């Protein structure tokens, strides 16, 4: 832990760094590849919409049922003519979910299902969900998503600038697309819990992005008054300065979500936990990635197109070229008698060449 803390301190002070912005084309390529895969998953497999969005019926049996899940699925399919999802609950009862059926036929399905399960129809609880209710939930979710993104763009444009707002919006769309694409590929059911998870990750996704943007804004106040750093250089320093903090907050947030997903959902078979935990887990990871590898490099790309930033970059590069040339001259012999096999000068701190002090302190005062 002490080594990690020391690494974070050195990154924050700028003593060491990784060129995230300089390698942005690699990150863009990776993101495009992942996004295309997610879109293909959505196009080919589609989302497994839950009963809340399709309409249907949910039947719950009494406790301590001896019928297996596979057998109950078979009975439900025969009774309704539709595929059924059956879950064994903690108290031993079965939850039989049949989506896409006409709710008017629910009584007939209930009678047939109760007979197959050797139950009194009165003990088989039935909850009906109309398709219009699910459509209302979907519409409200879309409205909430659009309103959230509009408010985010307006806030970031006021607090920072429009380029950062655009970059943050791109990162958000990137995170949502990847999360929904993985949902389609995995085949988890989309429920209102999934929608809650998707809306929740938007805030987490923006958290790290805003932290980097705030550092970048602070460091670029008088950027055109100096000729040491380009905008991309300072953007890269901002990422490195907040890198360890971003990793720490993401890991701390992912640990309990991973517990819900892998322990609660995987080992305990809690399907409701899967709905929200998968969206949170994927969304948090995608948000941490996009804030480092997408949002800030994209801001640097947009800013470098400005005439003032282009002029600054030209001045910085010219000064660096001049420094290299001066260091090379300082590394040569004053008399110009440097051998042909002399090593090239190394770019770095300028030191007084030893050749200029030769002969000092000798009796004759002459150089040899």
From TrEMBL:
Classification via NCBIfam families? 2A0604s01, transloc_SecF
GO (cellular component) term, any one: plasma membrane
Print the organism lineage: Bacteria, Bacillati, Actinomycetota, Actinomycetes, Kitasatosporales
- Return the similarity comment: Belongs to the SecD/SecF family. SecF subfamily.
Where do the Protein export membrane protein SecD/SecF C-terminal domain residues begin and end? 112-304
Biological process, per Gene Ontology: intracellular protein transmembrane transport; protein targeting; protein transport by the Sec complex
What subunit structure does UniProt give? Answer: Forms a complex with SecD. Part of the essential Sec protein translocation apparatus which comprises SecA, SecYEG and auxiliary proteins SecDF. Other proteins may also be involved.
Which Gene3D superfamilies does this UniProt record tie to the protein?
Multidrug efflux transporter AcrB transmembrane domain
Pfam families attached here? Sec_GG, SecD_SecF_C
Gene from which the chain derives: secF
Q: Which key words are in the record?
A: Cell membrane, Membrane, Protein transport, Translocation, Transmembrane, Transmembrane helix, Transport
- Single GO MF descriptor: protein-transporting ATPase activity
Record protein name field: Protein-export membrane protein SecF
- Kindly list the residue ranges recorded as spanning the membrane: 26-44, 141-158, 247-270, 276-300
List, as start-end ranges, the regions of compositional bias called Basic residues. Answer: 357-368
Where does it live in the cell?
Cell membrane
Key word Transmembrane helix present in the record? yes
Region described as Disordered: spans on this chain = 328-368
Q: Which organism is it from?
A: Streptomyces cellostaticus
Which HAMAP family does this entry report, sorted A to Z? SecF_B
Q: Where is the composition biased (Acidic residues)?
A: 328-341
Q: Tell me, what does this protein do in biology?
A: Part of the Sec protein translocase complex. Interacts with the SecYEG preprotein conducting channel. SecDF uses the proton motive force (PMF) to complete protein translocation after the ATP-dependent function of SecA.
| Signal peptide start-end | none
Please report the record's description of how this protein sits within the membrane.
Answer: Multi-pass membrane protein
